[in-house]
Specification:
heterodimer; A: 294 residues; alpha/beta; Helix Hairpins; Pyruvate Kinase, Chain: A, domain 1; 2 domains; 5-stranded mixed sheet; B: ATP Synthase, domain 1; 9-stranded mixed sheet; 2 helices; 9 strands; 44% strand; ATP_synth_F1_gsu (chain A); transport (chain A); ATP_synth_F1_ATPase_gsu (chain A)
Chain lengths: 294, 135
């Protein structure tokens, strides 16, 4: 049975923890808003990019199409880019992505494919390293980066491009967590290379327009320029969604922690009071029985 | 008065401008060209340069664009810029930093096409530098 003093200490330590988790929750909430704004602001670009790409892809097809769209013709070597967060304390966020990647790696391996992993973010690296340390070719550290800018994504994109040109892989898939809402982040895999033909929303519109398009310098040259940029844009979008998801997950994890701490404090206070009362009663009994004995 | 059309200038980070305009001059990779309403559908790559936008109210706005694409339709025009800044906000330090980055790229690029690309980008940036910051 812990003494009154022990209980008092425990209560004050849990209270201190609760204050910390509460503060972290509020910080995450503020950061989440900022991350959502950033994701929102980046949306027009990727949407337009998708529209332009769909448009131009419709006109260029067959053997002329660049390798980035059609693929190298084989699918022996897969590059998986696993985007996770740099910091922990965000519930199952990172382990969900890691599990998703792990399942896919196993699947690919069982099909006899060669797998390479590129980790973005420390947490995913820490988890995946345990099992696939031989497959991880590198990790990209964004810990020093306060606000993820396009240049960060572009650097990753360029890296992927140069690896593709060097023939180091055939298929490239990007793993990140799609931000559905504050409480729901869904791990997602997105194939970057060969670029899956973008879905066309207004199919008729595009068809009508593409027939009349003039290209300067020419369609293939534009496509050569456009696709690498599209890869960077997709990575950028994934990183932004990840940040928003991380903050959302952190917010709900910290909310839970705060609530648990509250419950614990209640329980501890209850047993503290009970024990205090027991002690008072005991003292009273001692006094009374002492008086009676006289 | 020329007809107005919708013009949008977007960079990966945000939407910079979305407005009714009458005239847009952009630095196409084959030279500057002007887009007005009812322009034939065109898609072009852009080189670093200054884009001049004349809004429907007749105001002129200038943006420095560091490469990208333009997508022209008869009723709308979209510039997808790699990076864009309003001319008023351009400062020498930023441009110098970009030029330095481009130089580093030239130095690190492999021989052949990549090197040529990096080199021409650097040349375009230098020209741009002299153009907007004559000092």
């Amino acid at each position: 049975m812990p003494s009154l003093k022990d209980l008092r200490n425990r209560i004050s330590s849990v209270k201190a923890t609760q204050k910390i988790t509460k503060a972290m929750q509020m910080v995450a909430a503020a950061k989440l808003r900022r991350a959502q704004d950033a994701a929102e602001a980046a949306r027009p670009y990727s949407q337009r990019m998708g529209a332009v790409l769909a448009n131009i892809a419709a006109t260029v097809s067959g053997d002329d199409a660049p390798k980035l769209m059609t693929g190298t013709g084989s699918d022996k070597t897969h590059l998986l880019i696993a985007c996770t967060s740099e910091r922990g304390l965000c519930g199952g966020f990172n382990s969900n992505i890691a599990r998703f990647v792990r399942d896919d790696v196993r699947k690919l391996q069982s099909e006899g494919k060669e797998v390479k992993i590129l980790c973005v973010g420390k947490k995913g690296y820490d988890i995946l390293r345990r099992e696939f340390s031989a497959l991880i070719i590198d990790r990209i550290d964004l810990r020093e980066v306060k606000h993820i800018g396009f240049s960060n994504a572009d650097a990753i994109g360029k890296r992927v491009m140069s690896m593709f040109e060097a023939g180091e892989f055939d298929v490239c898939t990007l793993y990140y967590s799609e931000f559905r809402s504050v409480i729901s982040q869904v791990p997602t895999g997105l194939q970057l290379i060969p670029a899956a033909a973008p879905e066309v929303d207004e199919a008729e519109n595009v068809d009508a327009a593409s027939a009349l398009y003039e290209y300067e310098p020419d369609a293939n040259a534009i496509l050569d320029d456009l696709i690498p940029r599209n890869i960077s844009v997709q990575i950028f979008r994934a990183l932004l969604e990840n940040v928003a998801g991380e903050m959302g997950a952190k917010m709900s994890a910290m909310d839970n922690a705060t609530r648990n701490a509250g419950e614990m404090i209640d329980k501890l206070t209850m047993s503290y009071n009970r024990q205090r009362q027991a002690q008072i009663t005991k003292e009273l009994i001692e006094i009374i029985s002492g008086a009676e004995a006289l | 008065m020329a007809d107005a059309f919708t013009f949008e200038l977007v960079s990966p980070e945000r939407l910079l401008l979305s407005e009714q305009v009458t005239e847009v001059v952009v630095p196409g990779s084959d030279g500057y060209f002007t887009v007005m309403a009812n322009h034939a559908p065109t898609m072009s790559t852009l080189q670093p340069g200054v884009a001049t936008v004349t809004t429907a109210e007749g105001k002129k706005e200038e943006y420095v664009i560091f490469g990208g694409f333009i997508d022209v339709l008869p009723t709308s025009c979209t510039v997808l810029a790699e990076s864009a800044v309003s001319v008023a906000d351009v400062n020498k330090a930023d441009l110098d930093a970009r030029i330095e980055a481009a130089k580093a790229e030239v130095a690190s690029a492999a021989e052949g096409e990549a090197k040529a690309k990096a080199n021409s980008y650097l040349a375009q940036l230098t020209t741009l530098n002299q153009q907007i910051l004559p000092a």
